[in-house]
Design brief:
Order of helices and strands of chain A: HHHHHEHEHEHEEHEHEHEHEHEHEE
Largest sheet of chain A: 6 strands, parallel
Oligomer: homodimer
Helix content of chain A: 40-55%
Shape of chain A: elongated
Structural class of chain A: alpha/beta
Distance between the termini of chain A: 78 Å
Chain lengths: ~325, ~325
DNA sequence: CTGTTAGCGCCTTCAG
DNA sequence: CTGAAGGCGCTAACAG
């Protein structure tokens, strides 16, 4: 009874109750254990009755596997990463794994520390690390299974999105509306994502037609501050490196009396909910929860290779034909 | 060497290297272990040199403590909870603890499952559970240390915010500006937070002057949809149960041609960043990361009692004197 | 199919 | 202050 209330029932208690050996209980409770159906039934029954709960520390110690994953994100306040955390954690739980999350506060140091701290306690890492350089990342992660998200790193499996294609969708949409001069607001140069998105634009737009703005560092403020420069270029449409930057843009444009989409079409990138709340923003949706689920699967599956997920333009109210 | 690269160095390896016993190594590496300074120094040195890393499964098994915390949040996409996760996790890491996060998807079932799944693997829980009823919560958590956040539950320590006082600040601000008729948009009846905020309003405003709207369920849509009713009341100012609802309100008011703050003052609650981005919203700031840090401290500290954190009105551009 | 036997790596008495 | 011994709860051979 006290064992029951304290959750301290062990397989030995279950075994004793049934008059069988602990190993049989262990096997019966393990998915790949070989026991008779009858035995399994009785064990499961007794386990439930006695309030048995697996002690994973003991299991970890003897198997070396922890059934836990580490998730590294630069900042949970960023909804992009919050959704990744949600997805990863849901998927992991469904597969019987727990997830340790480490918010690395945008610091490569902290990232390293977190990996060091958790590496023996997890079966692998899902890593969101847009900033730190490849070498450092590979070095920190050496010896532990890991998959990186929304980034490609030589030597590590990754889950990414078809950013280039997403950019093409955005530009095709604007061109179809009749826009000839389409600007781009680039994101931080150090970020893999920002780089790829920019490359998508550069690959899609003939060099002479390119109108490049930024790079911005602070997302909203950056967009806000680059809006005046945008107006000076004579562009009739703009694609921003992400949604928050697009919102900054829209905000300043409104202050300047420029109507969106009438006077300026604006497209964001990511497809965050927050960007559709007050200002229904046309945006290229980049999978987040789904990508995280894939990352977890990749980590837990034997043959691990990279995955590229599709992106999708979502047209809302910030784009229209030029007037 | 192979031990080193695989991270499989044990205290025995360190002990052997130094020609001492494993217990001495264990003591030297433990904060409260009693060894000579000289020994400790040598052990620390050898441990570092050999790449020793504590196997927490082994430690857990022998001590029963895991140095891990479970964090239950209803939805990480909600920035309120994302910030809590960030704060909890940062604080825990600083104190040498890891955190398992479980996003319970707003489901009491999932909450229960998560607790069952993690209860033997953590030293305690930090619980954000605005919805599920007290009994269920207490029952699920019985036998494990736990502190609840932004909610009070009989029999559990909690970290809450001075909501009533925050509401008073908001109302005082509006009254000082000259508003006489101040409406309130209530949140979901089932939520502890929504209930407390509403009570704050009810306690602060004489019954005959109260203008109660809602309750809303969907935050943004709810605010959006209640805006017309608000206009019909003749109120010149409104306090919304949270920021997102306030944004919904503002959005619909704009569509109706009602200028904020000129024609209607709006105050939100929570003080989320997202609410200051495009629409600088006057709001009552409710601590999130800080509250989470307190919750972690409470859990890790021996004498655990409840804490109430202050709230603070932050005046921005959505409030003004009535015109 | 089931029982016996050894640990997994660490901490914690108990002696010395 | 340090060493030896035992056990935390579970799994994994190895026999039967």
């Amino acid at each position: 009874m006290s064992a029951r209330t304290t959750g301290r029932t062990t397989i030995h208690d279950v075994a004793a109750d049934l008059g069988i050996s602990a190993s049989t209980v262990s096997r019966a409770l393990s998915p790949q254990g070989v026991v008779s159906d009858e035995t399994r039934r009785r064990v499961e029954d007794a386990a439930a009755r006695l309030g048995y709960r697996l002690n994973s520390a003991a299991r970890n110690l003897s198997t070396g596997r922890t059934h836990a994953l580490g998730l590294l994100v630069p900042d949970l306040r960023n909804p992009f990463f919050a959704e990744i955390a949600k997805g990863a954690q849901n998927r992991a739980r469904a597969r019987g794994h727990a997830v340790y999350v480490a918010d690395t506060n945008l610091s490569a140091e902290t990232e390293l520390e977190a990996v060091e701290m958790m590496r023996r306690d997890v079966d692998g890492f899902v890593v969101c690390s847009p900033w730190s350089d490849d070498e450092r990342l590979v070095a920190a992660l050496s010896g532990v299974p890991a998959v990186v998200m929304h980034r490609e790193v030589e030597g590590l499996p990754s889950v990414t999105a078809a950013l280039h294609d997403g950019m093409r969708q955005a530009l095709d949409h604007l061109r179809a509306l009749g826009h000839a001069r389409i600007a781009y607001v680039a994101g931080p140069a150090g970020s893999w994502n920002a780089r790829e998105r920019r490359r998508g634009y550069e690959a899609e737009v003939p060099e002479v037609e390119q109108v490049m703005l930024g790079p911005v560092v602070d997302q909203f403020e950056g967009g806000f501050s680059v809006a005046d420069a945008l107006l000076a270029t004579g562009a009739t449409a703009v694609v921003a490196y992400n949604d928050i930057t697009a919102l900054g843009l829209v905000s300043r444009l409104a202050a300047r009396g420029v109507r969106v989409p009438k006077d300026m079409s604006v497209i964001g990138f990511d497809g965050l909910d927050v960007a559709t709340l007050a200002n229904p923003l046309t945006s290229v949706s980049v999978p987040r929860a789904l990508a995280a689920e894939h990352a977890v699967d990749l980590l837990l599956r034997p043959g691990t290779s990279s995955v590229v997920l599709p992106t999708q333009l979502v047209v809302r109210e910030s784009t229209a034909a030029p007037s």
